[in-house]
Amino acid sequence: MKPKILIVEDQFIEAHDLQIMLEKNGYFVCGTARSVKEALALIATQDPDLVLVDIFLKGSQTGIDLAIILKDENRAFIFISANSNHDVLMAAKATQPHGFIVKPFRERDLLVTLEVAQYRHENSLEAGLRKEKLFRKKLDLITGQKAGWEEKLLDIGKALQPYVPFDYMAAGFKNHEGLPYSAMSYLRIGFDEYQIIGLAEFKEITNLKLEAITDLQKQTKVEKVPVYYNGSDFTALAKSPSMPKIVADVFGMQSTFIQPLPLPDGEIFHFFFYSRRPDIYGEEQLLLCSRFCTALTMAIQSMLNTERQPALSAAVGKSATKSQHEFLEGFEGIIGNSHLLLNVFDNVAQVAPVDTSVLILGESGTGKERIAESIHELSPRKKQPLVKINCAALPANLIESELFGHEKGSFTGAMERRIGMFELADKGSIFLDEIGDMPMELQSKLLRVLQQKEINRIGGSSPIKVDIRIIAATNRDLEKEVAEGRFRLDLYYRLNIFPIELPSLRERRDDIPILVEHFIEQYNLKTGKKITGLSDKAMDDALGYTWPGNIRELENLIERGVLLAKDNLIRELRVSRSLGGTVELNEDENRIKTIDENERDHIIKALKKCKGKIWGPGGAAEMLNVPASTLNSKMKKLDILREVGLDIRQGL
Question: 611 pLDDT band (50/70/90 cuts)?
């Protein structure tokens, strides 16, 4: 059944033309409004299924103001616009429209956009129900397994990770059965690896006694409804002494989502989710958790009926899964454990199983092609081809033929029929690298392929249906390109359904040592050498450099270093200061260092030897024969965490 449509457009002729197109194709137009006020009145009386909204309307309120209301009502809407600057595009994007169409448009483009918008709206509702059903099924399996509290809570956290992303989770009661502190904590240290933190470990990491933790717990605000704190709100929350302040200071968290679960006996069980990203939580998490709340409450009550929550003094901190230095299935060749890279893994795992278009964003050398390969490998299309195209490398006069193919004799030099890349990718995926460099005239043809799922060979007489999944990538700021008229707004919107932003290497410096180790091992095999690593000075240079060429530049320098090394160490990385390097390579090594500098170097050497592990067996604290809390204090005093890029989460 076709949806009932409301048109909100202040230009009479354009609104009239839209109505004619729609009614001609069997749609019922329930009214036309020229302002937000008129639109709201018609919505109240006509209850349209879908609203076509011009971004720019006369009056004090714009189409974006109306879109915010439509989003809150969970009503489908499509933006119509002739042009948009960067600020307008950002504001329109934030409302999460179900479609975007740019004036002037063909009737066919309008009809396809309507069909896609209706599908996306209905699919989003069904997706919510599917998520709830899947989560309930996982909870049933978790509560039914023979495991202790800490394992069951961890499994619940893992089940929630796709919906409420977190780097640190605490779950438990406040003052439960006389216990002053009864929350179990979990710190994420890998894609599917978490550190279980009991009370003893929490005391050691924070250098706090039980009495101090109890006092902080008493000063912590008790939430009775789900709530989230991002950015400045979280900073304000973590200013005064409290558990959020401790978590923020010790683990570097920047946002939190709190889910209280009232139990039948009147007690409240809390889930506290923390993230190192300052803007991760929002209305989506509130909506999802409202769906999951009943199932979560039943699961916790079932666990309590089976086994009362134990005191945490006996809990033993340990890693919950295998080491993440091993390659994860589907992510082979992608090295690192930084929280920014783990966010990328989460996004890939979430989007890979469905056919949604993906836009990969990131600087040159960050691994966009490898992420595209992972999306394909983890998708149902993995046994079909993944066709890769570099849009910047194709000659402008041949790009259409390369993409869509041509018939024999269709132009001078077309001596035979050519099958284009899109046809070759049928039933599989196509990776459009450097999509931001695609010529404007070809962008409109690509948009039609996305909308209609068919291509036309040059010189062909009939369209050819193709079943493909689009994965695009660019190092350009597409929003800026749209604002400056170099990239189509409607194409950007169609590609930007699920963006994945890759961090630069300077944003994940804590991954540099394991990347270095990986590349040395790789080039040892190629050259037959036995290089064991970098000298201390070379590693310091690597950690201090800005890496404008990212991972590709690091790999090239390691390859060069392996070839030039005269013994078993790479003693110098010849980074290019002209490209943004900040490393002084000719430091006077005869200068006498201060005591603090020597102590700092000694701690760094121990941390590298222990691969960043601070406490526990094989940790730097044990090696240096000092308490872990003392080592943490010295690291903060000497700026080791910030300057070297080591993350406290590695020390667990």
Answer: low
Contacts of residue 370, defined as CB under 8 A and 6 or more positions apart, other chains included, come to 333, 334
- Tell me the pLDDT tens digit for each residue of 135-186: 888 888 998 888 888 889 999 999 999 889 999 999 988 655 444 446 789 9
How many Å apart are CA 17 and CA 52, to the nearest integer?
Answer: 13
From the list 111, 113, 79, 115, the residue with the least C-alpha distance to 95 is 79
Mean pLDDT lowest among 22-26, 181-185, 374-378, 419-423: 181-185
Q: Which domains, and CATH codes, for the chain?
A: 4-122 (3.40.50.2300), 145-319 (3.30.450.40), 339-503 (3.40.50.300), 509-651 (1.10.8.60)
Dihedral sign computed on CA atoms, order 142, 144, 146, 150? positive
- 505: how many CB neighbours lie within 10 A of its CB? 26
| pLDDT at site 494 | 82
Cα four-point dihedral sign 425, 426, 427, 433: positive
**Dist. CA 619–CA 606, nearest whole Å:** 9
What b/e readout covers 462-474, taking b as 16+ CB neighbours within 10 angstroms? eebebebbbbbbb
φ/ψ (deg, to 5) at 570: -85, 115
Angle of CA points 100, 103, 104, to nearest 5°: 135
Q: What is the pLDDT of residue 327?
A: 53
- What's the rounded Cα separation, in Å, for the pair 394 and 379? 28
pTM: 0.71
- Please state, in angstroms and rounded to a whole number, the distance separating the CA atoms of residues 423 and 24: 33
CB 641 within 8 A of CB 651: no
Residue 425 has pLDDT above 50, yes or no: yes
CA 122 to chain centroid, in Å, comes to 24
Establish whether the linkage from the previous residue to 104 is cis, with ω within 30° of 0: yes
Exposure of 458 in the CB half-sphere (CA atoms within 13 A): 23
- The candidate with the shortest Cα–Cα distance to 614, out of 184, 251, 151, is 251
Q: Distance (Å, rounded) from C-alpha 73 to C-alpha 51? A: 12
Dig out the tokens for 442 from the structure: 């070809």
Measured CA distances, 537 to 444, 571, 573, 601 (Å): 52, 7, 9, 10
Which residue, 464, 493, 459, 475, is CA-closest to 391? 475
Q: Encoding tokens for residue 482?
A: 């749209």
CA angle 604, 608, 611 (to 5 degrees): 135
Q: Where are the alpha helices (DSSP H) in 534-648?
A: 536-544, 550-564, 595-609, 620-624, 628-637, 640-644
- Output the six-digit token pair for 114: 């309507």
| Torsion angle defined by CA atoms of residues 6, 11, 14 and 17, in that order, rounded to the nearest 10 degrees | 60
Considering only CA atoms, which of 445, 342, 357, 440 is closest in space to residue 403? 445
User: Does residue 312 contact residue 181 with C-beta atoms inside 8 Å?
Assistant: yes
Tell me, rounded to whole angstroms, the distance of Cα 291 from its chain centroid: 23
Q: What is the DSSP letter of 112?
A: H
Instruction: Give me 9's structure tokens.
Output: 């457009």
The separation between CA 121 and the C-alpha centre of its own chain, rounded to angstroms, equals: 22
Give tens-digit pLDDT for 61-103: 999 999 999 988 889 999 988 766 777 777 888 888 888 888 8
CA 501 and chain centroid, separation = 7
The CA-atom distances, in angstroms, between 78 and each of 3, 35, 118, 236, 418 are 13, 16, 10, 37, 38
Which residue, among 522, 373, 506, 508, has the nearest Cα to 433 in the 3D structure?
A: 373
